[in-house]
Amino acid sequence: MELRSLSEELAGNSYPGRGIVIGKSTDGNYAVTAYFIMGRSENSRNRIFVEDGKGIRTQAFDPSKLVDPSLIIYAPVRVLGNKTIVTNGDQTDTIYEGMDKQLTFEQSLRSRTFEPDAPNFTPRISGIMHVEDGSYNYAMSILKSNHQDPSSCNRYTFAYENPKAGEAHFIHTYMGDGNPLPSFEGEPKLVAMDGDIDSFTNQIWNSLNADNKVSLFVRFIKISDGSFETRIVNKNCK
After folding, report:
1. Is residue 20 part of a domain?
2. Angle at 232 between CA 227 and CA 236, to 5 degrees
3. Could you tell me the CATH number of the domain that includes residue 144?
4. Are the C-beta atoms of 221 and 81 separated by less than 8 Å?
5. Residue 126 located in a structural domain
6. Which domain holds residue 155?
7. Average of pLDDT values for 134-157?
8. Which of 155, 18, 158, 123 is nearest to 77 (CA)?
9. Residues 6+ apart with CB under 8 A from 217
10. 120 contacts 150 by C-beta, under 8 angstroms
11. For 4-8, 40-44, 100-104, 228-232, which range has the lowest pLDDT when averaged over its residues?
């Protein structure tokens, strides 16, 4: 698979929607993830990321303007032991609860489908990172409707063992802007993983469409001991 530029992938798409990047730092010392959200409506844009324990959650920037919280207020990131879960919806909790009961990542998602937001039927994208005893692997999932058919769900899981330094995989909800919004197609894109946590954060944030970007979360997890650093960027700043 061709190694792509993450900056070019983002800059060339005015509306990738929500996106997850997971990979390994250039020096091989860190497991890396990023999650961003975008919005076209006032309700979607009225959000910020806030820290919540070892994870994060979305929150209304202006509570008086919150219309429907059902698909926009959730915990995108939760940590279960040596596992970090990153998703674009409340399936974060489904994965957390399932894996806490010894289900696999894939088994935990069997109870979920795409989002009920006709006519888009937004895909549910999810990632799981496992860092333990100096080893690291990750998996990504997408649950999507079969050509906007609400009765048919296609399920795809991609697993990556011993990932290479300087490489990451990128999955997002939409191929681009449209009405209805066209769902992501294919397997996660192989992208170059460059720089330290601050340069990587700036690279993503500066490449996202200025009108549609809302919030960004980035985490570097030290593979040797599981310690981590986090960056959060919100377009709406308090």
Report:
1. yes
2. 165
3. 3.60.20.20
4. no
5. yes
6. 6-234
7. 97
8. 18
9. 34, 35, 36, 49, 56, 76, 77, 230, 231, 232
10. no
11. 40-44
Can you read off the two tokens belonging to residue 21? 């990047």
In a domain, 1, yes or no: no
Domain count across the chain:
1
Per-residue pLDDT, 237: 85
Is the per-residue pLDDT at 238 higher than 70?
no
List phi, psi (to 5°) of 105. -55, -50
Q: What is the pLDDT of residues 38-73, one digit of tens each?
A: 999 999 999 999 999 999 999 999 999 998 888 889
Q: What are residue 189's DSSP bridge partners?
A: 170
219 domain residue, yes or no: yes
Tell me the pTM: 0.97
